[in-house]
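Query structure, 278 tokens:
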């Protein structure tokens, strides 16, 4: 079965582990032989830094691709060839830096003016990122997009290009962690721009070590959302090592492979492998 799945990692609250989830889910899938592309969709460039690249030093980034898609789509393939970084981890990366905020501003201008720079009335500012995917999707089993907090149009673009989204949430905060807001956004994008978009699940992160508490937290989340959304089976254990590995430019599998969180991300990857089977 051809997988070719595009997954956005998103939550409108900060500090819930979006970048760490993107990095380590990608590494877990790579570890079982899948070809993975990570896309840094955040002007802060945290995923780029976590992949051991300096965001400010990147000449070609997601910004170049979005602007090319708006202005000269005939050159997109050439730009993609220059932008995708092949890393020692085995994952590929489309990096980002602060220039991505310029692309977000350009998208907003398009939205406000209803102006389409390439004259294609079928395209919209919300679907610019989606126009990149035909040049990328056949090269990878999984494309994972790490979304930031600001610039909602960038997140909308990611969701409009995705098959699934994963919503990380700090386990001890439960539903207060922005989940209702992101679910509203997902529903809106699905209705207006991308009918194939589905919530892969809610991922509990930063769980601190009591199995009984783990079960009660998961049960509470399921209860809050009425069983409508999947909650991933194994929360991501809180660990200093998990917090340290992005700063070291490594995944948890390189930095601390015996850490309990490594098995949590393997569990997540196994569930992701099953997406679309039922």
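Result returned for the query:
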């Amino acid at each position: 079965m051809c997988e070719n799945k595009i997954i956005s990692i998103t939550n409108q609250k900060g500090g819930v582990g979006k970048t760490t989830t993107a990095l380590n889910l990608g590494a877990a899938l790579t570890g079982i032989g899948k070809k993975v592309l990570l896309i840094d969709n955040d002007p802060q460039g945290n995923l780029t830094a976590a992949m051991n690249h300096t965001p400010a030093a990147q000449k070609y980034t997601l910004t170049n691709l979005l602007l090319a898609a708006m202005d000269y789509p005939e050159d997109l393939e050439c730009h993609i060839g220059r932008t995708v970084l092949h890393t020692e981890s085995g994952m590929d990366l489309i990096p980002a830096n602060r220039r991505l905020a310029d692309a977000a501003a350009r998208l907003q201008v398009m939205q406000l003016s209803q102006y389409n720079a390439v004259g294609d009335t079928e395209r919209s500012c919300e679907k610019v990122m989606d126009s990149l995917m035909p040049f990328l999707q056949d090269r990878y089993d999984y494309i994972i997009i790490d979304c930031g907090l600001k610039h909602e149009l960038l997140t909308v673009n990611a969701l409009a290009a995705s098959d699934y989204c994963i919503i990380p949430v700090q386990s001890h905060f439960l539903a207060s962690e922005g989940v209702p807001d992101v679910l509203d956004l997902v529903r809106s994008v699905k209705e207006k721009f991308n009918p194939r978009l589905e919530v892969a699940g809610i991922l509990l992160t930063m769980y601190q070590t009591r199995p009984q508490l783990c079960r009660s937290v998961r049960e509470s989340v399921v209860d809050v959302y009425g069983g409508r959304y999947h909650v991933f089976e194994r929360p991501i254990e809180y660990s200093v090592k998990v917090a340290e590995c992005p700063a070291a430019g490594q995944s948890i599998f390189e930095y601390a492979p015996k850490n309990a969180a490594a098995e949590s991300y393997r569990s997540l990857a196994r569930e992701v492998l099953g997406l679309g089977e039922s």
